[in-house]
Amino acid sequence: MRIGLTGGIGSGKSTVAGFFEACGALRFDADAVSRELTAAGGAAMPAIAAEFGAGVVAVDGSLDRAAMRARVFEDAHQRQRLEAILHPLIAERRQVLMQAAGGRSVVFDIPLLAESPAWRARVDRIVVVDCLETTQVARVVARSGLQAAEVQRIMASQATRAARRAVADAVVFNEGVSLAELQGAVQALWAHWRCV
Prior knowledge:
Layout: E1 2-7, H1 13-23, E2 26-29, H2 30-37, H3 45-52, H4 65-72, H5 76-101, E3 106-109, H6 119-122, E4 125-130, H7 133-144, H8 148-157, H9 161-166, E5 170-173, H10 179-195
Parallel strand pairs: 1-3, 1-4, 2-3, 4-5
Helix pairs in contact: 1-10, 2-5
């Protein structure tokens, strides 16, 4: 079974992905791969530096995330240029994982799944982790130190809650529930789909 997992920033998507892993799924974390590709010495950094210039490269040779964020969230064309570098490299890593998976189920943790219609054909089920937008902002501010206005700008660049829910085969509502309750919801979904 191939599960596409998505949710807005601060929705709890990574936590839910971890619960799917605990059920036995392999996890492909597109954000983690992206961070690896843009770390110092990362495979994407030469192309990013060539495309965007030294202004987006930190002193240690990694991607200056704040500088790049300022560019891509204000200009869709800049974001497309970055994605044109990263997405093929991420796809290569995805293929390697799929070849190694054997018969195991895989959960694809993809932040922008709803924005990319191609994902529907790549997965058997789509799970959306959802919560109130005010909760998203509060969680991200607490964990990252970003200002609320910056978090809201990031959210505005992502699919809306309604757009994400529209592509979902299942919605995990991560609002006002304990971690144990959230894990129970994931386990129930896993058990149901494994029996279908």
